Protein: VOC family protein
Organism: Streptomyces violaceus
Amino acid sequence: MVTRLNPYLTFNGEARQAMEFYKEVFGGNLTLNSYGDFGQADAPNADKIMHGMLETTSGFTLMGADNPPGMESAPGNPFSVSLSGDDDAELRGYWEKLSENGSVSVPLEKQMWGDEFGMCTDRFGTPWMVNIGRPES
């Protein structure tokens, strides 16, 4: 297996909703395992997500989970998830869905380096960067 770099997102009880939302945005195969699935069926957090993984047909892998009991999580920790490429329609579609009901800090528009770029935070507090480059000739 090739070593991969994957974003791993942590949520305060909204992992199921967030991961299902990202599946709506990107498509693909979503696997969700709750704490109850891993032998904690009677625990108060049994229905919370211990590990989730979304693998898309575009080759993205996004992982996420609810914070384990007793650990704090702050949405928007110092990270961003970056999407980049030259498929204008695909990337613009992701942007529209991710920014809907979220906040836009940099509108998706042409930048000084020639690409279209934008930054938003989705409704779950996850910061995203989208860069639409010009197709290579």
Observations:
- The longest helix spans residues 15-26.
- The helical segments are 15-26, 88-99.
